[in-house]
Amino acid sequence: MAPNRRRGAHAAARVETAHFVGTKRATRPAAQGGTGGKRVNGLRSRPPVKRVVAAAVVLAFAAVGFTGLLSSPSAEPTVQAFLLNWQQRSYAAAAALTTGNPTEVAAELKDAYRGLDAAAYYLSMGRIAQSGDTAQAQFSASVDLGQDGAPWVYTGHFSLKQVGSAWKVVWDPSVICPGLRPGLHLAMVSSAPPRKPLLDDSRRPLQVPTTAYVAGVEAGRLHHPLATAEALGKVTGLEPTELLGWILAAPRAEFQELVVFRPEQYKRVARRLAKVPGLIVRPQKLRLFTSIAPAVVGSVGTEISSELRNMGIAYRPGATVGLSGLQRAYQPKLAGTATTRVITESASGHQMAVLKTWSGRPPTAVRTTINSGAQTAANRAVAAAGGSAAVVAVQAATGHILAVSQHAAPGLPRIDPLAGRYQPGTAFTIVSTAALLSSGLGVGTPVRCTSVNDVGGRNFRNIPPVPNLGMQPTFAADFAHACGTAFSGLSERITARDLNDAAGAFGLRASWGLPLPSFSGQVQASGGFAQVASDTIGQGTVQVSPLAMALVAAEVDSGAWHKPSLVTLPDDPPVSKPVKIASSDLGALRSLMRGTVRSGAGHAANLSGMPVHGQVGTAAFGTGKHHKWVSWFVGYRGGMAFAALEITPKATTSAVQLAASFLTGAPQG
After folding, report:
1. Does residue 210 sit in the same domain as residue 148?
2. Whole-prediction pTM value?
3. Each residue of 494-515: pLDDT tens digit?
4. Sequence-distant (≥ 6) Cβ neighbours of residue 28 within 8 angstroms
């Protein structure tokens, strides 16, 4: 990216303040309150007149340390007067104390720091060496460049000569700053590297190139730069004086970017932009706004984003800010900071010398755990679903999140794959079965599956209905067909504590520490029979996110609980803990989940290749007669665990087909 220059007229909108002392640097005014200049919109306002006068009164003759003949007039009063007039913006008075053309010198002093967009400057008189009718004076300058950055501090010097009975400053542009010569001016160059991308698990960018609209100017062709800045400011909400500063600082014959628009933003303002005099709009492919994993990557704002202002980041062409997702969480890494230089520059914009450099922090790409193959498969599956849908996939052996995708259908609620709170229905029987197996229940134990079952005075029904499994189906058959009435009856074998312990063993309620908002689940089973029965079938107090259920399936597959991760950091090994479920019970769970797919309610996901294991669930979503239904299918295949979720107007097992669509396109193993 070409360096950006910041200089010129936009400094005029700031009120410069200056403080001067004879022998030591003045104390800067406080940011707010006290006797210092008050900040207005981040800038210091001009101090009261009384304080300016007081600053002048502080001048001390004795401590300047000058040397010279006592019989000669002292050059010190001239040095003091020159510096004080300069910093108090009495440019004509200061110019009259020099050997130069008063009008030209006054103009040069007035424009001295305009190219730096200086919020304020502070001058302190230093040593004066006097010999006969000549003298050498030193001073220190501290130029506040704004943006809460470090000031530019330098030591200046100039010559004086005696003209008659008076002393004059021998004028040369270097009086303002060493290195400044006739025909040159000071400018500030800001070089901001392009934003780094978020990467998938194979270090490929998750963002894809899409069309953006870059608005800018060729400064040499503008007839009225101020008119251009004001018109563009009205369209974008940016401060016209800031825009003007960049326009005036731009190389005369080169395109200077000013604002980048998303396609939808550009569409809204295209007609108004067309009326901005001299504005050029170029479509350009940028890897910035569109991602294959928007649910985790998030969005990016450009120069016109109010978020930049809220963060205290000054306008700068090319500036970007993460608005959501990982783009926001890792803003400092992805954006870095600009390298800034104070330079001398010719009238044509050619850089002549670098006077000061503040090195920026280079941006760094952030590698995620997202697998592009799994993510693309999830995107296609949710886009083809009839209702609002979501798919979350994790690597069972590590907890690495491989895919996070969601799609909102018209008229239906959007699903939050990481932080959403939903009842899982009988998909939760993976957890409650672990408690039941621990109580001694065998997979071959006969357990009736009825259309309705009264437990603790509450009637439980199978929604959607379960096919007739015969008079004495086995527990394995009940599990395979997600018979909620069978599980509600079996809940009398376990206590609320048993169910809560099983939930804890599967990592529900665990602390994850993901960089994005997430929900690890909630189970608060109490001692009542009806309450335990309701929680056993994933209703009652049970709430989970799709990610939480994907991790439940991952534990069955891998035999251990793994903390989920979304970003790969150096020296950050996967966190796991020993599972509290007996290996024999895990083996039984695997067999039961395979039966669901092979011959039960999840048969639509019985794909060729590596076997699919899973469990279905259906639960009400919302309240009242217009409530919706959540369909679940939770399982694993080839080391990848997943949760597929769909919200529909009617109770179905449609998530099974959603999962099958995802698994068909996802990489195996």
Report:
1. no
2. 0.80
3. 999 999 999 999 999 999 989 9
4. 19, 36, 122, 144
